[in-house]
Amino acid sequence: MPEGDTLYRTAAGLRPYLVGRTVTAARTSGPGAVPQVQRVVGHEITGVDALGKNLLITFDNGLEIRTHLRMNGSWHRYRPGERWRRPPGRARLVLEVPGAVAVCFDAPVVELLEQRAEALHPSLGQLGPDLLSPDFDAAEALRRLRAPERASMEIAAALLDQRALAGIGNVYKSEVLWLDRVSPFTPVAEVDDEALARLVATARRLLLANATSGRGPERVTTTGDRGAPGPLYVYGRTGRRCRRCRTAIASRRQGFDPPRTTYWCPACQPDRP
Q: Is 260 assigned a catalytic role?
């Protein structure tokens, strides 16, 4: 599933083929199609960047395309005339430039907006610090996690809140909490400052390692652990043995909009009394 590292790699893969080139054709389809996307035709692409779980393509006329992949979306790049690896009916956005065709499949969110309106956008304008940004502001992320409205929120849900810090998805949520021995169900107010700072630092370390590893789409949180059970410690491993204590990994649905499955070790990450 796309998380911050996926979007970082996607942007890096598209950038050499799109930036500096003029759009020769653009179209959208499916629910929420954006016919106004034609306004980017004839204009140069000036940037392809990831912001949290968003991919932003900017143009020299001040417009910007935002895509959010949610669970199933993906970006592909093809040569002109090359056969697509997915059915054309699943293409939500197609951008053609000299020498390349960029196709966004299955994304539920495709938007065209003015770059200058980004700060007012209901999603982009509220994003917390991006964990993969060179200028990541850890202090601001911690301040947002400590906001009164998150005090009673379970820490696993708080880490997924993109308004607090941007880039963490369900895989990293479970892996980070296991690595730092914090129960996913602990209210934020009961996580001490040192532990909260450690969670943020661990999340940034793992995201950066996977975003820049060059090993492809496989996500790994066990790098350097020769006895590790696989690429991940707990995510997707319900009923298997914990790497540390051999207790069976547990899982259950947690949170809202929508609920996500959380994986944890009941012995290493005990619930609060």
A: yes
118 as an active site residue: the answer is: no
Residues 80 and 177 in one domain: no
Report pLDDT digits (tens) over 4-23. 999 999 999 999 999 999 99
How many domains, in total, are found in the chain?
Answer: 2
Whether the CB-CB separation of 88 and 36 falls below 8 Å is answered with no
Asked, for residue 133, whether it belongs to a domain, the answer is no
Q: How far is CA 251 from CA 113, 237, 263, in A?
A: 40, 8, 4
Please indicate, yes or no, whether residues 101 and 196 belong to a single structural domain of this protein.
no
pTM for the whole structure: 0.92
Task: State yes or no: is 3 an active-site residue.
Answer: yes
Which position among 53, 150, 204, 237 bears the catalytic label? 53
Dist CA 63 CA 30 (whole Å) = 21
One domain, residues 166 and 219:
yes
Q: Is residue 272 part of a domain?
A: no
